Amino acid sequence: QEEEEEEALAEPGASELGASAQHPHDVKDEDKGLTLKDGAGEEGESSDPNAPAKKLKAEAEKKKEKRQKVDEDEIQKMQILVSSFSEEQLNRYEMYRRSAFPKAAIKRLIQSITGSSVSQNVVIAMSGISKVFVGEVVEEALDVCEKWGETPPLQPKHMREAVRRLKSRGQIPNTKHKHILLN
User: Rounded to an integer, what distance in angstroms lies between the CA atom of residue 125 and that of residue 127?
Assistant: First the structure.
């Protein structure tokens, strides 16, 4: 989305103009088949050739301010939630926040599978996805442990059952059988 905004700023009026406009600052009124000069016929607007770029820049600033407002609201909600945690919950949350997969190991794994080098952004994204996946498996394993009337710590049998359940629900793809679709 930001790339589109940058491209639009690089080409003034590009996002607002149809392909049928003759000049970068001309706008075709498709209903009437007329071509209007930018700013012509509109009161209060100057005939500034950079008006579309300025408009896009103003819209981008508004979006950025809105995003910051939403982020501030989310931070405030998170602070309220964390402040209501018990000591045990707070310790678990801190451990969750600190945990991460080693980036070098993730990079080696991806490169061994794909056979090509990957960017740091891909490694970071895959590391985050892996963390969420492990969290889901552990959460399911805790449910299994509780359902069986046992107490943590988790054992391999709980993890195996959790993976089996997630596979049966289709949340983990079956890696042993590759389905080839013929068109």
Answer: 5
pTM over the 0.85 mark: no
Question: What digits encode the pLDDT tens for the residues 151-169?
Answer: 989 999 999 999 999 999 9
Q: Within 10 Å of residue 64's Cβ, how many Cβ atoms? A: 12
Comparing 14-23, 41-50, 79-88, 106-115, the range with the smallest average pLDDT is: 14-23
DSSP summary character for residue 169 = T
DSSP 3-state of 28: strand
Residue 7 tokens read as 């491209």
The values of phi and psi at residue 29, to 5°, are: -85, 100
> Using one digit for the tens of pLDDT, what is the confidence trace for 9-36?
444 444 444 444 444 444 444 444 444 4
Q: In angstroms, rounded to a whole number, what is the distance separating the alpha carbons of residues 21 and 55?
A: 19
Helix, coil or strand: residue 79: helix
Contacts (Cβ under 8 Å, ≥6 apart) of 4 = 15
User: 93-104: buried (b, 16+ CB within 10 Å) or exposed (e) per residue?
Assistant: eeeeeeeebeee
Is 61 in contact with 50 (CB distance < 8 Å)? no
What angle separates helix 120-147 from helix 103-114, to the nearest 10 degrees? 100
Q: Do 142 and 154 form a contact (C-beta atoms < 8 A)?
A: yes
